[in-house]
Structures are given as C-alpha cells and as structure tokens.
Protein 1
Amino acid sequence: MAQLRPGPNLSRIATSLGVSVATVSNALSGKGRVSEQLVGKIREHAAELGYVPSQAGRALRTGRSGVLGLVLPDIANPLFPKIAQAIEFAAASAGYGVLIADSRGNVSAQTEAINRLVERGVDGLVIVPRRATRISAASCPVAVIDTASTPGNTVAADHWQGGQLIAAHLADLGHKRILIIGNNPESNVQNDRAGGIRSGLCPGMSAETLWIEKLEHQAGSGCPLGLARKVGEGFTAFAALSDLQALRVLTELQRDGIHVPAQASVTGFDDLIWSAVVTPALTTVKMDMDAIAEIAVSALVKNIKTSSTREGALVTAEKDRVPMQLIIRQSSAPANPVQEHLQMENS
Amino acid sequence: MAQLRPGPNLSRIATSLGVSVATVSNALSGKGRVSEQLVGKIREHAAELGYVPSQAGRALRTGRSGVLGLVLPDIANPLFPKIAQAIEFAAASAGYGVLIADSRGNVSAQTEAINRLVERGVDGLVIVPRRATRISAASCPVAVIDTASTPGNTVAADHWQGGQLIAAHLADLGHKRILIIGNNPESNVQNDRAGGIRSGLCPGMSAETLWIEKLEHQAGSGCPLGLARKVGEGFTAFAALSDLQALRVLTELQRDGIHVPAQASVTGFDDLIWSAVVTPALTTVKMDMDAIAEIAVSALVKNIKTSSTREGALVTAEKDRVPMQLIIRQSSAPANPVQEHLQMENS
DNA sequence: CTGAAAGCGCTTACAG
DNA sequence: CTGAAAGCGCTTACAG
C-alpha cells in the first residue's frame, strides 16, 4: 500500500533523532516536561522535515476535530460574505477550521445541513437560523446568531438600537414623516429594526410601515412601489430595513424623477457592498460582524474545551447585544443649502 | 476518561449482534461479501442505535478526509455566495464537506490559507485565485476557477463568449457607440469580457473602454464618472464588466437625470443579487455556477480517487469553458415606442 | 526528564 | 460468507 501521507510523522522524527514519539509529541505540543535543549532540537528537526501533524490522528485520539460548522439559511444572502469572513477569521485565530453548510430551502434542509456537519465531526456549530426556527439541541455546542427575540440566541447585533440610530439621524435632519420599508413581517431582525426606529422617534415625528412583497430573483423587478406618490403624500424619509430594499427604493425614486436626498432621504441597514458604490451613496447602519463572530466563536470554544462530553447544548450564557454603528452617506443629507454645498464639494 | 463520542461505534454494534467488526464494516459499506440477511440485520441495528461513522477513524485509516477546501480571494466579494453555494452543493452531492478559507489581503495570505487547509487534511482544493497568481502546486489536487487566460486553470465561465452576448444584444438594440466600463485592467476576467464585447461588435459599431478607479468601500462614493457627459458625446450604451459597476453607472446616470433605458442602455455581468431588484432591472450575463462547480468538484474527486498518493497537482485535464447566459431586463430595453409599451405592461 | 504501552474507530488484506 | 489481526498517527496516563 502506498504511503498516503507523504509527509513525516512523529515516529519518523523520533527514530531519526533517537528519542521516543512521546517525547517528540510533548516537545512539539509544549505540554510535557521535556528539557529545553531537546525541545529545541526536536522543533528544529520537525521544521526541517516539514512536519505537519495529522489532524486525523489527533482527532481520533482526542475526540476533537478542531473544526466548527457554519450553517446559513441561504448562502446566496448578500450578508453572507461578511458573516463567513468574520467567522472564518475568528475561528482561524482560535485554531479552528470552518466547514460550511447551506440550508437552502426549507427548515428540513436546515436540519439536514446540521446533521451533515455533525456527522463530519464538528466540535461546535454557529447557526444563523431560518425565520424563527427553534434549533433542536444538536449533539454538539451551538451558538445561534439572530436577534434578541430568537429563542436560544447567543449573540447578535442590537438591531433595535440600530433602528434607534436611524430614527435619531432622521430626527436630526428634520424629517417628520417616515416610511419604514421591509419585506418580511415574520422576520425577527426586521421587526427589531422597525421597532427601534419607531421607539426612537421624537415628538412630532410619525412613521408608517410598508411591507413589500419579496422579489423572485429571476423574475425581474416587481411592481413599482409607488414611492413617488408617497413623496407627494408628504413622506420625506424612507427607512428601508435592509440595504437591498434601500437600493430598490433609491432606484425607483430616481427613475421617477425624485431627487435623493434633496426631495427625500433614503437609509438602509447592513452596509452591504453596494451601499458605498451607488450615487448617492447609501446612509446605513452597520453590524460589527467581527465582534459578533468573535463572541460566538469564543463562547463555542470555551464550551468545547470545558465540557469533556460532546453532548452539546446551546451556548446561552452570553446573550450579547453588539451595538450597531451609523454610517452617514449622501442619500440622507438634509435638503438645506449648507449641506448641499458641503455635499458637492466632497463628491 | 469520559466517552468523547457518545454515539455507538462499530464494535458496539458488532458485540451487540454477536458478529465481528469487520463484518459490520463490510455490511455497512456494502463492499465486502456479506450475506443479504446479515447485511439487513446489521443495517437495521445500526440505524436503531443511531450509528454515525467516525470521520476521524476513517480518515486515519484511509488517508482521506472527505473534505474539500475552498479558497477565495476575498470572501467579501459579492460573487462569493453563489460560488460557495454551488461548490458546497456539488461537494455535498459527491459526499464531501467544504472547508473555507479567506485569503483576504495579499498573495501571501493566499498561500497561508492554502496551507491552513492542507494542514487540516483536505483531499483537494478549489481555488479562485487573486489577480494573476500562479498557484504553486500544493500537496493535494487543485482545481482553479478563473478564466482561460489564467495559468493552470481548470474550469471557468466563458467570459469572452459572455462579452459577445452583450455585444450582440446591444447590436440588436441598434446601439452604435458603446462605453465599456471596468475597474481593473489587470483582471483576466474583465479583459476577457471586454475582449468578447469588442470582438462581437457589428460593422458600424464602436467601443471605448473606461477604467475607473476601485472604490474604497468605507470611503463613500468616489468621484462622479461624468457619464452624463458621455451621453452628450453620443454614447448610448454602457457595458459594465460587472454588476457592481453597472449599479454605479445606473445610479449615477439616474441621479444626473438621464433616463435608463430611454436615453441610455446599461448592462452588467454576473446577475448579482441586486440586478433584478433595482429599477430599471439590470440586463446582465450570468455564469452557470452550478455547472462550473460540478465540473471542478468532479474533476477533483476523480483525481482523488484515482491517484493513491496525496501528492497532488493541478487538475488540468479538462480546461472547460462553461457558456454564459444573457438575461435581458429593463435597463437595456431599446428606446422605441413598441418596447416601451411592453415594458410598462409587465412592470 | 524520558520512554513503553495502550487505545481512539476504522478498513483492509488475509486466513479460514 | 465470516473473523482475527494489523495498523493509520496521535496523546496521555503511567512507570522509570
């Protein structure tokens, strides 16, 4: 049988150096009590040989794979890149790999995705759940990222506070009538954001909410939202509950000859890739994904290292709310001369 | 020491059934020659017990982890969701898991990411390279996804042909002067697309290329591109080399009072999430990511199963070019009454 | 400070 | 058709 892993293993280093594998293992891991000089010699030799420890061997022995699973409701979601990047970074920093699984489609696909990951032996799971799914305890520690309203949630952006930032910003700009625009009345995230906006309104301000239908991505753009008419009715600010909807709002207004921000302000959420690219650039509220990922991963890792059984439960200790941050861009500049002047200069 | 994996293992099933582990293993894998009835009994019992094979044990024994690595130049890239989703699906269908790594930043980060994955014991690697990186042969099979112009490339969308689709579409619409808009003259992908467009022009048509600077995502929108002036100069079609740039073009034109598509057509590439959402919806050219992923993964899997050594090289046998597909939406409807009528009806 | 030994769970020739 | 045995590479008590 061919040598499957061409690289050297512990015993090759051991024999080559005339010591035992146990000593090599201890020297390399820094755990056992090995003499300084021997440690040096062993490490040097290992490096020379280009030794790479076998994850399989280690995993079999320790019962830990060193891998975390990431389950997403829909990888095609535009927020995904940021989540994945942040989780991957946090995991890599903690010495873990990240296995992905897409629960595209329904809830049963989510369960399947979780199972696939568990079968691959992940030590823990980061789950961004679909709608308001309750995650039935998997057989490993689980961290859930969504909103405070989600049962079993561990950590999330403070969407409510994010909404308040939008409200305060629009108040500063002097807006009185706000139209909140979402596409999913069932979404915890969107409800938190909308609630935050309403709770943050100042006296004299009012808000209505418009739930628009979800677009089929293939089908081309849906019905016009009639936003120009809303401007006619006196709405001057459109607060979308996601940048994707903000984009829809912005382009429809522009197409219908409404000038943004001179005639109406548009704001979004999430600071998605295009928010800085469109003209005018979108004012938005950003999650601190790196912080969220860091909290989720470290909670998971702590749990993994603590409990010696793999029987996992939700890592619920924390329940962190990570504050969001307002990013002011041109789409919500106030429609007064001073601001317009400034805006022209830096555009 | 606590039982790390709570689940049953082969020997538990074996003793519980009074047979040998070898027989259980053979029955479950369907490889060995085990009597029909015994196979049935064993499988049934395994299912009852909720047996999940240990990947670690299997990996250690076989030298294969059953995991593929996916290396991306920048996970924050908006194309990433589609790539990841497609690769994950293709891999899962072939019985493989997908470990991700982000080579954010420079080329050395890419090498590091590859090493991290190799150290985790991936059986093969799917790499979307940065710029024109040459992938130095890693110690496992590698499939590279980029363009035909990329050295060592295995499979990619036919970006050139995609460009030709755009050219033919604009020709059909009666456009004469085309402005091609890209942001990276070094990019193989963008050059292929631009070349395809130019090569597909009909007699009487002409194209110029405008390379715009890359936006810093944080910095807010960059300088205006002066597109309205280009309309004044007689350009009637703006062919962006990616939907992100198309979005920038579309919103700037609209902000400056140019009506799309009445006064100018706008097209993009990639069918990114927002292309169907904006008003007017973007005409674009779509990659068949599922096909690309399927080809890359199956080439990898074939190579993994064939070669018994893990010494991998680039899986270069195929060199497939997967055709792209034109998706016509409102942003490039011709500016004649008939079309405008149709457009109103289905909008 | 160092080493001999056991064992994690699996698969695969080989023998019966 | 079935089983006994070896061994993948590692870590961890335990003994010296």
Note: Residues 174 and 229 of chain A are 21 Å apart (CA to CA).
Protein 2
Amino acid sequence: MDRPYTGVIERLKNAGLRPTRQRLALAKLLFDGGDRHITAETLHAEVLAANVRVSLATVYNALHQFTRSGLLREVVVDSSRAYFDTNTSGHHHFFDEDTGDLSDIPDGEISVSSLPGAPAGKVLSGVEVVVRVRSQQ
Amino acid sequence: MDRPYTGVIERLKNAGLRPTRQRLALAKLLFDGGDRHITAETLHAEVLAANVRVSLATVYNALHQFTRSGLLREVVVDSSRAYFDTNTSGHHHFFDEDTGDLSDIPDGEISVSSLPGAPAGKVLSGVEVVVRVRSQQ
DNA sequence: ATATAAATTAGAATAACTCTAAACTAACTG
DNA sequence: CAGTTAGTTTAGAGTTATTCTAATTTATAT
C-alpha cells in the first residue's frame, strides 16, 4: 500500500492522541495484524527490532493511553507483570503459568452464567475468566 | 482454651512445616478466624501489631510455603500485588479497583459453564473468575 | 546436651513500573 | 512558512513489591 500509516493515524486521532512517530510505530505493531497479547517489555523489544527508537517510558505511556481510550484492554493474569490485549471485546483467557503465554479461549467454549450484582454502592466494571494451565506434567 | 496453638501446630506439621514461632503466629492470624484475603504487607502489619517480631522476608516465605502445601490459595487480581485467600475451595471474587478490597462471590451467585479443555500438551490448573467493581460512579 | 538440617533475618539486589524536569515536536496562528 | 504553545518523549532517578544471599538462630533427632 502507498500510505501504510493512514489507518493507524486515523485510529490515534479518533482516540484523541497525536500521531507521533513513536505512537505510530507502536500502534502499527499492535493493530496491524491479528489479535495480540503483549507486555511492555515484549512491545519495547519489538519496536526496537523494527528500528524505531522508543524509550520504555513511552511504551508504558502509550499502553496506558491506548487502554484509557479503549484501543487496548489490560488482562490481569500475573501478579508481577501487566498484559495487554488488542482484542477489546468481551472474551476470556488461557494463561500458561510455566511459559507466561496468554491466549484467547475461543468464543462459545466458555460462558459465565448468573452474574452476581455488584455489592451495594459499587458499579460493575468487568468480568474476567482466567483458565490457568501448565505445560509440564 | 488452654492450648491455643494445638490446632495450628497440627496444621503446620501436616503440611510438613516446622511449627516455628513465626509460622505459628502467622498461621494463627490466617486460620483462626473466618476466611481471609491478605497481602504480604497486611499480614506483616498484623503480626507486628500482635507483638511478634517477624521479618517481611519470612512473611513472603510463609505465604509461599502455605500456598505450596495447599493451606492458602493465591488470587491474581492486581498486576502489582499478590493476594492470598485462606479459603482454598473453588470460588470466585469481587475486586474493588478503587480500594483494593477483595471479597468472595457467594456460592451459587455465579457459575462457569462449558469449561474448555486445556490446549494440547497442557494441563488445567485452575479457573478464576474476577468480577471487577468500582466504588465511585 | 549436641549435632544438624531447617528456618529466620537484615540488608542488598532485582524487576516492573512511575516520576521528573528538560528537550523536542505536532499543529495552530497569523 | 515562522513563531508559539501545548502535548510528547526521554534519560535517568525514584518507588514498590518481591526475591536473594549469607550469616545467625532454632527445632528436632540422637
């Protein structure tokens, strides 16, 4: 394509974010492929591998801004590291405790029934199912 | 009771752990009451408040040992802090993102149907549902 | 009582972020 | 376009939760 960034530029503008060199590179890696699960470190490594100099602080900033504006979703599966998912629609995950691999549970293979109401004075903000698996034994 | 530690001593011995002064104090706080949700910091504060000098490293060690031997369960709800639950039977949680409060979803108020099989070569190790709520608006 | 293996500890180290203040740049204005 | 400004990036310092290390202490077996 002649203008490989147009889609991503639009996406950032719609989110109210300036399409800077850094955000463009990150957004391209994140959104120009299928659904992805990443951490700050893996995304930083990828963007450097693509020869765009971006600081780790900017990766963190971008991940949070993208999440705030709904382009990403955070998935909490590990108490020592934050994972982000480019698929922001409601779905659930397998998490391999040995490898750290996060993957989608295909739609329809799981369902949560009879959701409880939020406790008094609270507002529901999300429901996450994590199916933990292990590689060995 | 005359021997307030007998129960807890047995519990530790059954888990293959020496009933040391520190582990006894921690186990008493954890198991001599109803179900509890704690973090290393909160448990450390409690044990010091009970006037037993225990280092934070020992609290971390004990939490992991207790978890390994099935006396505790880790609940992953926050990517920056580990929570532990004294109720090790299968149940799910509310997590208040504003206050950090973790609470049980009463049994029967939620259920996960049609569990997916683990991906090839993997073994299922747990299923966790976290219902996130917020305090404000 | 002793020996020994296990447990505890202070303090250093690490990992994953977050913050700060200075330098840079996108985008608006005339 | 040149100037202005507000938003963005960054290096490096700071923070927080947790783990590690090596020395000391303690529980238990003998």
Note: Residues 18, 20-23, 54-58, 61, 79-80 of chain A lie near DNA strand D (CB under 10 Å from a C1').
